[in-house]
Write a structure and sequence with these properties.
Layout lengths: L1 E15 L5 E11 L10 E9 L4 E10 L6 E8 L3 E8 L7 H6 E8 L2 E9 L7 H5 E5 L8
Antiparallel strand pairs: 1-2, 1-8, 1-9, 2-3, 3-4, 4-5, 5-6, 6-7, 7-8
Length: 147
């Protein structure tokens, strides 16, 4: 059986409330559309997250949900100072500011359910080339998700 796979790279910054210092953040994720008949349901992903200023990288797992207003990202990873944290946020489509609303995603950093910081990432490659570069039809793989 085949399914759709989305490979996405986003980059930007993360800022913790405790330090008030922005540092470079990036992630590469592979989203498997396991809910092919219900594409609005959360789709699992896994990948790598990078804090480039520290030379730190770690696995990231989460879900991507599509809504009419824009996609929602929810992911967990191990932060070098805080341990397990979650990043949650969504793009909000806006015709008056279409390019930015298609590419920029504000996120909140949570630790044990409490907001401890903020982040902003953006898709930086060509929007027009996105479907050709990022979408693939692949043989279905085992499910991935929060770990």
């Amino acid at each position: 059986m085949f399914t759709l796979k989305l490979q996405e790279t986003m980059s930007g910054w993360i800022e913790l409330n405790s330090t008030r210092k922005q540092e470079a953040l990036a992630f590469d994720i592979n989203v498997l559309f396991t809910q092919r008949l219900q594409p609005w349901k959360p789709q699992p992903f896994s990948g790598m997250l990078y804090l480039r200023d520290r030379g730190y990288q770690t696995e990231v797992h989460g879900y991507l949900s599509f809504k009419l207003s824009g996609p929602r990202y929810e992911m967990k990873f191990h932060h070098p100072d805080l341990g397990l944290v979650e990043l949650k946020g969504e793009k909000t489509y806006d015709l008056a500011n279409l390019k930015e609303s298609l590419t920029v995603c504000p996120l909140t950093v949570f630790q044990q359910g409490e907001a401890v910081g903020y982040a902003e990432v953006a898709y930086r490659d060509s929007i027009l080339a996105f479907p050709l570069q990022s979408l693939r039809l692949v043989r279905a793989e085992p499910r991935v998700g929060f770990q």
